[in-house]
Amino acid sequence: MHLKKLLPPSWKRFLPLSWINRCLLCGRPEITGPFCIQCLRLFSPKTNSRFCPLCGRPYLIPARHVCAECKLDPPPWEKFGFAVFFTGIFKEIIANFKFGTSFYYLDFLVGLLECGFWEAKLDVPEVIVSVPMSKGEIQKRGFNQSLELAKRLGKRLNVLVAKQGLSKIKETRPQRQLSRQERLQNVKKVFVSQKELQNKKVLLIDDVLTTGATCKECVRVLKQNNCSVQVLVLARAVE
Ligand SMILES: [Zn+2]
Ligand SMILES: [Zn+2]
User: Fold this and answer.
1) What's the distance, Cα to Cα, between the start and end of the chain in Å?
2) Which listed ligand is nearest to 33 at the C-alpha?
3) Which residue from 58, 23, 61, 59 is spatially nearest to 42, judged by alpha carbons?
4) Which of 60, 90, 131, 210 has the most Cβ atoms closer than 10 angstroms to its Cβ?
5) In which residue ranges of the chain is CATH 3.40.50 found?
6) Residue 18 CB coordination number (10 Å)
7) How far is CA 156 from CA 147, 153, 162, in A?
C-alpha cells in the first residue's frame, strides 16, 4: 500500500490549487472524489462470496454458508450489510473520521455505505436509526459518527432518519478495550428505543462492527418495540 503517500486532509488548505483535485494516493489530477479509479481498485476487494452473509466474517476461500458462530448464536437482525473490511487504508480513513480529525472523506464513506446497502440487497426501510452515543461521549467527541452517516444515507435513499430513535442512557467503557464477554455485559440495558418506532421496518447504522455486541443490544431493544431490523455498517472488523 502507498500509505506513506496519503496526505492528511488538513494539509489540503496549504496545497497549491493545482493539487486540490488530485488523488490522495498517487497524485493523478482531475478526480471527483479523494481517490482516482485506479487507486480505488487497490482497496481490499470485497467479493460477495467471501464472507458470512449474517455478520460479514471473512472467509479465506469463496463460501456462501452462515459462519459457525452465527449458527450457534444467530444474530437478532433480519439482514446484514457492510461496505468494506476494516483493514488497510480504510482503517486509517475511518479512524480519522471516527475520531473527528477529518470530515473530508465523509461523502466518500457514505457513497461506500450506500453501495453496501444495495450489494447486500437490503430492503428500503421505513426509518433509519443510528447506534447512539451517551451524553458524555457526545460531549467528548462533539458528534456521533454513526448519526452523520445515517443522516446522509437517509438523504440518498429518501428515507426518514429518526435522530433520537435510540438513546444511550448510561455511560459505558469503550468497547475496544474489552474482551468479547465484557463487551456484551458493558452494553446491557444501556439503550432505549422511542415509542414512535413501534412496528416499523428499521435500518440500524453503525460505523464499525467488531464482535457485534453493541448492534445486537440495539436490535434487541428495537425488537421489544416490535420493529423488524436490518443492520448496515460501514466497516466490518477482521479479527
Ligand atoms: Zn490514485
Ligand atoms: Zn456470521
Assistant:
1) 20
2) 1
3) 23
4) 131
5) 44-236
6) 8
7) 14, 5, 15
Fold of the domain built from segment(s) 44-236: Rossmann fold (3.40.50)
d(C-alpha 225, C-alpha 1), whole Å: 46
CA distances from 224 to 135, 153, 196 (A): 23, 25, 13
**What does the pLDDT look like over 28-87, one tens digit per residue?**
876 677 777 777 776 666 777 789 999 999 998 888 899 999 999 999 999 999 999 998
**Distance from the CA of 75 to the center of ligand 2, in angstroms?**
8
Contact 225, 71 (CB under 8 A): no
Ion ligand 2, residues whose Cβ is below 5 A away:
52, 54-55, 57, 67, 70
Rounded to the nearest 5°, which phi and psi values hold at 228? -100, 135
Rounded Cα–Cα distance for residues 222 and 224 (Å): 5
CA of 237 to the centre of ligand 2 (A): 12
- For the chain, the helix, strand and coil percentages under 3-state DSSP, each to the nearest 5: 40, 15, 45
In angstroms, rounded to a whole number, what is the distance separating the alpha carbons of residues 88 and 94?
Answer: 10
